[in-house]
Amino acid sequence: MASKFLFLLMCAIAVEKSTALVLDTKDCGSVLGKFSNFDLNCNEGSTAELCKISPGKKYTGTLKLTPNTVINNGTIILHAIFGKTTLPFPFPDNDLCKDHNIHCPLKADTEVTVSLTLAVPSFAPQVNLVAKIEFQSNVNGKVKDLACIEFLGSIHS
User: Fold this and answer.
1) Exposed e or buried b for every residue in 41-69, given b needs 16+ CB within 10 A?
2) Which residues contact 117 (CB under 8 A, 6 or more apart)?
3) What are 22-70's pLDDT values in tens digits?
4) Is the domain 21-155 a CATH 2.60.40.770 member?
5) pTM, whole model, 2 decimals?
6) Where are the domains of the chain?
7) Contact 81, 28 (CB under 8 A)
C-alpha cells in the first residue's frame, strides 16, 4: 500500500512540473502538406497561447503532419525570433525520417505523428520569443516546407 501511495505521489509531482498542451500555432508557409495538433510538454503555468520553458531542460511533443505528396526525405529546422532578429536554435536530431517515430517515404494524404524533443541550451537568455519550426523536404530538386509552424514561447528560470 505504501509503494502504491509513493508511486501516485511521484506521478502527481511529475504532472505538476510540466503540462502537455496543444499550442496555438500559426502556419508560416506550409507548401507540401499541412499540420495539426502541436502538443508540447511545457512548464507549469503555460497556456495554449504561451509555452514556458527553462534553460537546460528538454521538452517532448508531437505534431500531426499530412503531406500532399510523397516525402522521401526531410530536415527539421528550429529558429528563435526576437523582434526582427531570427537566430538558429540548436536541434541536433534534424533528420525528419530518423528518430522521430516516422518512417520515410511518407505517403501523400496520410497523416503521421512526428515525435520531437526540444532541448533549451543552459545559456539561453530569459526572453519572450516566437519559435519557428520548419519541416523541409527536397522534392524534384527544390527545398520546400512540408510544414512551417510558429508559436509563442517564454524562456525563464
Assistant:
1) bbbeebeeebbbbbeebebebbbebbbeb
2) 58, 59, 60, 93
3) 999 999 999 999 999 999 999 999 999 999 999 999 999 999 999 999 9
4) yes
5) 0.84
6) 21-155
7) no
